[in-house]
Target: RagB/SusD family nutrient uptake outer membrane protein
Amino acid sequence: MTKKIVSFLLICILLGAFSSCNKVLDVQSSRLAPEANSWKRLEDTRGALMGMYGLMRAALAEDNAHWLWGELRGGDFTSSSRSDLKAIINGNLNYNYPTLQTLSDWRRFYAVINSASTFIEHSGTVYSNDQRYTEANWKADVAQARVMRAFAYFYMSRIWGNVPLVTTSEEGDFVAKPATDQTIILNFAETEILKGINDLPGVYAGLNDPLLPNSYYGQGPASWYGILITKYSAYAILAHIAAWQGHYIDCDAYTSHVVNELSTSQIQPSAMRVTGSDYLTDPTQSGNLFTGNNQRQILAFAFGATENVGSGHLEELTLAAPFVSKSVPDMYVSKDSITSIFPDWAQPGIAPDPRFGRDSVSKLYYEKCFTNFTGEIPVFSKVKCVINSNKGTLPMFNSAIVFTRLEEIKLLRAEALYNIWGPASPEAIALLNDVRSQRGVALYDSRTDLLDAIFAERRKELIGEGWRWYDLVRYKKIKDPAFTKNMVNTKGIYWPVSVSVLATNPKLSQNSYWN
Model:
């Protein structure tokens, strides 16, 4: 049944929910789904809700945008031959490549925002007319729409800074609007999430869930793990909104809900922890982080394993032989970068890191995250959910886009506690050590700066998950005044706005760094 739900999300995309998107904010909307006169039955709200998730998955997946925005700029990947990827890696974001033009266009997110706004405005009609649509169900659905809209604005603000703020659905022509200051955008996002967070369950259809027990749209809890926004997803987004602004007291408060409340929830931390390395890197392992949907995903966007999908997955960029019939990956982590990320890999007396290291007896390199290290080009194999890899056929993948998970939130909280209490924060050290112990590596050594150690662990743990550039920005805001002067204050940390967006909206202007 889970596959049916995930497949429905994909169908929403393939039927034009995303690819038919016209110029939101400047031309007539082509997909208000369902139309205002279609909000009659429980099935209408279910379809609209799943369509909203499908739109967000499509926004992140098109041109593999989630990883190109988050991993390449200033990151650890190298392009083997693609000039467009090299341009992003080198920070030349205004080069005239089709991929960069697509990545500079924010209209994909306004499709999500419009879908969420439409749901918020019209779903109450179904609640009034269909007795099957309970108040708790309706409130949880509206809360999901609020959080999704807020998430879209947060995601955009990390990429472009100031963006137009639209808070209602647009039934006809979209009115051209100027960009709104990022602070206002993020305040709106935070407020929206807080409005609905108490209506979100920790577990959809959980046996003893106080909001939506036993069944949600006719399905049990296993069907919804990793599929929908929960209260923990909402708190995780709030934490990142706070951290992006340097509001670390708020970040600590929000992350504490995720880390501490899970101990009393129906999803125990042991079920959410990515322990060892198999759950992280082995797609055949039941509950693998990236395969399908599961409890380890606090916020993720999955594709169904039964769908023939090659695009919109990290594997399309990173895998090569022996996983697929491709001799060289589009991008890879160089040997120098790998040994820089894992500097203790060859140190005697130090427990080897299963993410990268060498067996002390056989002298063979671990290949859970990096395959073919002894070859010319290593293959980044942390994510390798391959459906069809036969020679002569187009490879298909079914990995989820995982925005956040428990280990990421623990390290974010450690970052917050460092910034609140300083380098001697025992709780920050404990959180860092908790993540390190899950990988079976040595605990934190106080001879290393604690903040450096926290971000070094994020670099190891989260590589390939779309965090590197945003982590660098937060780290350098704290540690590098020159970066703040030369990149933050000049808006150099953001992407340029698409030329086509500027051409159709005269009230917008290019980010100053890219003029």
Notes: Confidence is low (pLDDT under 50) at residues 1-34. Residues 230-276+404-479 form a domain with the Serine Threonine Protein Phosphatase 5, Tetratricopeptide repeat fold (CATH 1.25.40.390).
